[in-house]
Amino acid sequence: MFRKYLIVLDNDKKWGFYLNNIGRTVIDKYDGYPSKNHPENYTFTWDKGRILNEFHLVLITNGEGIFESEITGQVKISHGDTFFLFPGIWHRYKPKKEIGWTEHWIGFSGNIAHDFMRNGFLNAKDPIISKCDQHFILNHFNTLFKLFDEQPFGYQRIASGVCFNLLQNYTI
């Protein structure tokens, strides 16, 4: 498991695109979900779901489960699928108990992220991208995990650039 939640400063927000959090979690079959110890504004239960005030990209690299939003209804998620979460939109998701899954996620925000949505590059009506290029995406995630682990000078802006580059894979 790996997870980092950032304190985003006003200067970071002026950059126009910034990361709020990043993580990777392995949920074994029959494990409880979601995992514990997330900040309060990120926790949810299946019964209640949640509404975030930021975007998230979630990649499933093993297993399968269900995604649901107020716009999409329930949709099956499988190994290799990515789904996006949108600010202000109710959603919930979970792995199949008998199978589990491995999830990688990035929370991001900023004017540029909202422009992606306004201009149709990210669409809450169609948030699932099936069978993504996992090698390409995981390389970007691994770069981000390393940046967040080592925290070199300027890592938050460097990470924003890596995430921005990752998103281009989904917005072509």
UniProtKB/TrEMBL annotation:
Swiss-Prot/TrEMBL keywords: DNA-binding
UniProt entry tagged with the keyword Chloroplast: no
An example Gene Ontology molecular-function term: DNA binding
Superkingdom, taxonomy of origin: Bacteria
Biological processes annotated in GO: regulation of DNA-templated transcription
Domain AraC-type arabinose-binding/dimerisation, chain residue ranges per copy: 52-166
Membrane-spanning segments: none
A Pfam family reported for this protein in Swiss-Prot or TrEMBL: AraC_binding
InterPro entries: AraC-bd, HTH-like
Keyword Transcription: no
Protein name: Transcriptional regulator
Organism: Jejuia pallidilutea
